[in-house]
Amino acid sequence: MELILKYFPDLSETQIEQFAALEELYKYWNAKINVVSRKDIDELYLRHVLHSLGIAKVVEFAENTSILDVGTGGGFPGVPLAIMFPNCQFHLVDSINKKLKVINAVCEAIELTNVRTTHSRVEAIDETYDFIVSRAVTAMPEFTKWVKGKIAKKQRNELKNGILYLKGGDLTEELKQYTTVKAYLLSDYFEEAFFETKKVIQLPLKYK
Ligand SMILES: C[S@@+](CC[C@H](N)C(=O)[O-])C[C@H]1O[C@@H](n2cnc3c(N)ncnc32)[C@H](O)[C@@H]1O
Fold first, then answer.
1. C-beta separation of 181 from 155 below 8 A
2. How many other β-carbons are positioned within 10 Å of the β-carbon of residue 188?
3. Ligand 1 centroid from CA 107, angstroms
4. ipTM of the complex
5. Binding positions for S-adenosyl-L-methionine (predicted)?
6. Residue 62 needs a FRET pair 20 to 30 A away by CA distance; which of 68, 95, 157, 161 works?
7. How many structural domains does the chain have?
8. Is the separation of the CB atoms in 196 and 188 below 8 Å?
9. In CATH, what number is assigned to the domain containing residue 82?
10. Nearest 5 degrees, angle CA 98-CA 102-CA 103?
11. Residues with CB under 6 A from ligand 1
């Protein structure tokens, strides 16, 4: 929890309580339904919570922003971002229902009311959002096919909507088909070695 306060020192009391509660809740639920690998659960704040919040270092979501988290698994990056942005609406989607049960239980326990979950493949979701976030679901070319048409067209400013995808490693090959892609290195924001190769990939509204 100290790790979160190190990089986000201005959290409200509610946010601090919500973040602090995650460790016990995820440990409890992960023993029943595996959503986080066994070795990662001891480093929940580093590998999952802070990693998810890398997106909050890149974009400040305005009030009432709608955000889809594709393939959210146990709620990453959606749950930490929903705590960070309580005035935004988060839709967390995954094709495995039991993982969503964990998210619903966690959100209920910490009274996180700006999250809804849907059991579905994302391709079948017929809504639009200001932003789409995701981590570790599939390669970008397939991902952008899945979410095409799901980004709201009301704002044509790439900083006000688009895709924010958490990704590591050398992405040259995977991203070569996109003309306007930005990569933000998370090591520019977080000093822990874990973030050395981690990035937030930003694709604007329009991509090929
Ligand atoms: C490796 S896990 C990552 C989970 C989470 N995003 C994280 O970083 O901890 C990938 C997740 O994507 C989900 N998934 C894969 N393809 C999907 C699709 N087409 N629509 C919705 N969810 C999908 C899987 O069920 C799985 O929970």
1. no
2. 12
3. 19
4. 0.99
5. 71, 76, 122-123, 135
6. 95
7. 1
8. no
9. 3.40.50.150
10. 115
11. 71-74, 76, 93-96, 99, 121-123, 135-137, 146
